């Protein structure tokens, strides 16, 4: 790989890490089971930012009475009074409830309690209609927060569609409630961004993309006009239902590109996205007892880091990404199912586990310790292997190169491009495994290494301290350009065209991003032509080969020389040797280099 510390990497205009967007925890400062000591540990020792709250609104819903004048609606006067009390309580603890921490939280609730249907008796007033639910949600946001500390993001439901039959509703009704809720929230608190549908089962390629048509596309068609963002949950393993998926790598970005592509076709803009849960779900409930659970933490940490490295390539598209790491998670003790915790066998998703009368940290804290202190301006890196993901940050006198290995075997990464740096000290930080347990280590090196070896699913960070600042001289700006068509069926020998118009002018190359869904055994290397020239299609992509899944769905990146592009309109032609499946989306990433 080659680093270019002299070149700022601008992705859609974003040039910095934005830790508040990425280094987050699925918790809030107001969770009643998080002690003051634990809060300080999260914020100061781990340098984590708060991510998501699915409980506070649900608890308030249950105790909210009906409007005395209309038993099918919430009592707004009660919500005003209760909200004023909640604001006063927070004001008495200013260190815990800092406005900047509160604003970054994503609020959501659960469809089992909030879905507006006649059978809902969770609260005195139901809610028995979408309008009643919307009235509660909007007034909760208005009266339980001030303009300074109100959360910026609101998900109408948490993972609704997989629960629709059990609740007694359907995709259409749930999508309609998103519309009603979003409109009422905008009337009372217009600055709050509303999104959905918080998909649990993002197997969009299932049944030759009928899953996409019936769920994500249907949601976007019904509710998309009123959504500020689209939210998805992405897990390695199986989340709720579907086939086992190692999503880390090409599958993640294929899903994101498909949503972007349809968003652009429908609205002329790719609306922002949010990954409000991600990680790994291990279905077998064996080896959960301490200390055997350490062997479960190794792949979980690998998924957290691997997925994060992919999301970091999309800062202009991402409002927030939240690893599914709970704080104390006291609610998991005593429940049944895969989230169940006992003192002997805690849930895989806890930052703090119960130990007698106390709580101690789990190995998941190593995710935050690995990223601790890493910040700054993005600088350019190029890698010859898509399985090695890299990011470079310059923060004053501290430069950091972060690497993650998505391959199925250990890789040695040769390093080049550091010659211009006046280096004072080099530290190698690793997140690895030893004796089937996660291990974070740091080692001071005698200068820059020629190469770094990285194990399967493991990460390394090269921390480089300089004697003097190193200013960038150039900027590479990455712009995504979307085609006007998507989801094209593949026929043997039949050309498929994608046209890209209005490319940004300037010098530089491009990358054609092809999200392809095909059954195993069919070709993933089409003949790709542009302006009469045939491009070389890679035989590798980020992450694994998705073996064992009924359909491969992943992103293949095809390098495109800049001199083959026409800024006004460029047409790419794809031809496959066999039939079946679809090219779900085509996105052209155009890189333009300018002097700073």
From TrEMBL:
Residues 387-488 form the Porphyranase beta-sandwich domain. Coiled coil: none annotated. InterPro entries: Beta-sand_Porphyrn, BPA_C, GH, Glyco_hydro_b. Residues 498-590 form the Beta-porphyranase A C-terminal domain. This is Beta-agarase. SUPFAM superfamilies: (Trans)glycosidases (SSF51445). It comes from the Bacteria.
